[in-house]
Design brief:
Keywords: 4Fe-4S, Iron, Iron-sulfur, Metal-binding, Oxidoreductase. Its cofactor is tungstopterin; [4Fe-4S] cluster. This is Aldehyde ferredoxin oxidoreductase. By secondary structure, this protein is an alpha+beta fold. Helix content is 39%, strand content 14%. The chain has three domains: 201 residues, Aldehyde ferredoxin oxidoreductase, N-terminal domain (Aldehyde Ferredoxin Oxidoreductase,  A, domain 1, 4-Layer Sandwich); 161 residues, Aldehyde Ferredoxin Oxidoreductase Protein, subunit A, domain 2 (Orthogonal Bundle), CATH 1.10.569.10; 146 residues, Orthogonal Bundle (Aldehyde Ferredoxin Oxidoreductase Protein, subunit A, domain 3). The protein is built from 22 helices and 17 strands. α1 packs across α18 and α11 packs parallel to α13. A six-stranded mixed sheet has the order 2-1-6-3-4-5. β4 and β5 form a beta hairpin.
Length: 575
């Protein structure tokens, strides 16, 4: 991948350039964060002409490496005001890689309100009028684009939330079956795409050759070991394919760490009704699809197709965090209602975690009753209609809390906390507080050691060693994101000392390099340093690396509190 494709959204022009020396060896999150630091003024408005939106395949994307089809989308977040990398599956990453595009950069900003779409092909880039698609939901958008350009193209699109530049707006990507269930969700980057007046991006790799491998035999040997590692681990090879990430509902509930009724308790009495086991039973009964990949080459296959009671498609990529956010957090126990809320988020183009937490804040404020799934559906439908309440909901939990005068708002850097209570999973709590991304479990998934016993076992209820493990995981995760690998490869890698070496071997065979495992750590640290430096320039201080006061309350059933000092948390971001 030797080219950077720059799109000037105001002039409707494009150019290819050779990457500068300091970014030539980077991919994925490493590349997006370095370019945002270098090119975007940290104090600029995220929706201004000075802001940029960058799509970058990982170092292994486009190759035969298993689970290497993830895409990093980077920018300045309209939600947090800091740097953001949002990660997604789908088809775009691999097709950009096959086109030899290291990064796609959307720059500047149109002076009118006309929307366009960008079509990227082997021999040209086209700008097409897209006003006819304004207001079209993401599932219909993918259908229209596949009808127009063929079903082999990759698509990225925004819904009405992105068009209206709401700060919870996502960018949705077609999965291999044409469903909009894959998203760069967190941080509101769909609003940045909307500010550039780009409704959709189409990537057509027709006529391209396979991604070249410097040493095909060595790559094949390393990838064979890699596939065996991924498919033999009990989490990535058995649990996730069988039940998807929703397998965690009962696991986290049993651990007393499932945040319920806006983080008041760690157990939901109706957890079984929204569990992965119930979801799997419904899928089988309703002729859905129990296991499938979010991109070609995935061997974990934790995604699925969930049908309604009439056996019609309802949603796909039905994730644990989504089920928790609209379920236990809001006291909604009807899985079909939660699935409809997931479907609406995909179509409107909204981050499901942010929106689910926001729905709980609306319940906290008395807008709708706790546990009323049908009322939540109707409230969510207001997004994009011009209804003021829809505007409020679409701008996230912190904004909604302000609008309703609520002081119990679970956010860090204005981004909503995900599905693990930090008082009962303290390693992930440290990650929430200290990651440059705002509250984000994927930035350093301490659930592994705290709950699942993957990569060791650390008491989730005590402070001991949890800062250190969060820091280690944040470093490793940044490097995994740079490679374009699915985060779930971390489960077998943490349990097998040869796992990281396999990744290094594939990168070396792909590019003809001589990297060692220590280079992975060095890369992860450099990424975090870039992100922390951007946030420092944007005005963030150590005081922003804190959890809200609501987490000082004792948390049932463990009667634990959030008790880390500022000095202890500061250790997580010292590199």
């Amino acid at each position: 991948m030797s080219k950077i494709l720059r799109i000037n959204t105001r002039e409707k022009t494009y150019s290819f350039e050779t990457p500068a020396e300091d970014i030539a060896g980077l991919g994925g999150r490493a590349l997006t964060s370095k370019m945002i630091l270098n090119e975007v003024p940290a104090t600029s408005h995220p929706l201004s002409k000075y802001s940029k939106l960058i799509f970058a395949p990982g170092l292994l994307s486009g190759s035969p490496a298993a689970n290497s089809g993830r895409l990093s989308v980077g920018g300045k977040s309209p939600l947090t005001g800091g740097i953001k990398e949002s990660n997604s599956g789908g088809l775009v990453s691999q097709k950009l890689a096959r086109l030899g595009i290291k990064a796609l950069v959307l720059e500047d900003k149109p002076e009118d309100d006309r929307f366009s779409m960008v079509v990227i092909k082997k021999d040209r880039v086209e700008f097409l009028a897209a006003d006819e698609y304004v207001g079209v939901c993401n599932s219909d958008m993918i259908t229209k684009l596949w009808d127009r350009f063929g079903k082999r193209v990759a698509t990225a699109s925004i819904g009405v939330a992105g068009e209206q530049r709401l700060t919870s707006a996502s960018i949705q990507f077609a999965d291999p079956k044409g469903h909009p269930g894959r998203a760069a969700g967190r941080g509101g980057l769909g609003a940045v795409m909307g500010s550039k007046k780009i409704k959709a991006i189409v990537v057509d790799d027709k006529g391209t050759d396979r991604v070249p491998l410097h040493d095909p035999d060595a790559f094949k040997a390393a990838n064979k070991k890699w596939v065996e590692l991924l498919t033999s681990h009990p989490v990535s090879g058995q649990g996730l394919p069988a039940y998807g990430t929703a397998i965690l509902v009962n696991v986290i509930n049993e651990a007393g760490a499932l945040p319920t009724k806006n983080f008041r308790t760690g157990r939901f009495e109706n957890a079984q009704d929204i569990s992965g086991e119930t979801m799997a039973a419904n899928i089988e009964k309703r002729s859905g699809v129990a296991t499938e990949g979010c991109h070609p080459g995935c061997v974990i296959k934790c995604s699925q197709v969930y049908n309604d009671k009439d056996n019609n498609y309802l949603t796909s990529g039905f994730e644990y965090e989504t089920i928790w956010a609209f379920g236990a957090h809001c006291l909604i126990k009807e899985l079909d209602d939660i699935a409809m809320l997931d479907r609406l988020c995909d179509d409107l183009g909204l981050d499901t975690i942010e929106t689910g937490v926001t729905m709980g804040i609306a319940m906290e404020g008395g807008i709708i009753p706790w546990g009323d799934g049908k009322a939540a559906i109707e409230l969510l439908k207001k997004v994009g209609t011009g209804d003021p309440m829809g505007k409020i909901i679409g701008n996230g939990a912190a904004f909604t809390g302000q609008a309703l005068g609520i002081d119990r708002v679970p956010v860090v850097k204005r981004q909503a906390l995900p599905a693990y209570d930090p008082r009962a999973v303290k390693a992930v709590g440290v990650t929430y507080a200290t990651t440059p991304m705002g509250a984000d479990h994927t930035a350093g998934y301490g659930v592994c050691q705290n709950i699942l016993g993957v990569g060791g076992s650390i008491d989730p209820l005590k402070k001991d060693n949890n800062v250190a493990i969060s820091k280690t995981l944040q470093i490793a995760t940044a490097a995994i994101d740079a490679a374009g690998l699915c985060l779930f490869v971390a489960f077998p890698v943490l349990d097998n000392p040869e796992g990281l070496q396999m990744i290094v071997d594939m990168i070396n065979a792909r590019y003809g390099l001589s990297l060692v495992v220590d280079d992975v750590t060095t890369l992860g640290i450099s990424i975090l340093r870039d992100e922390l430096e951007f946030n420092r320039r944007a005005g963030f201080t150590p005081k922003d690396d804190r959890l809200p006061d609501m987490f000082k309350e004792p948390f049932a059933p463990h009667n634990t509190t959030w008790d880390f000092t500022d000095e202890e948390l500061a250790e997580a971001v010292k590199f």
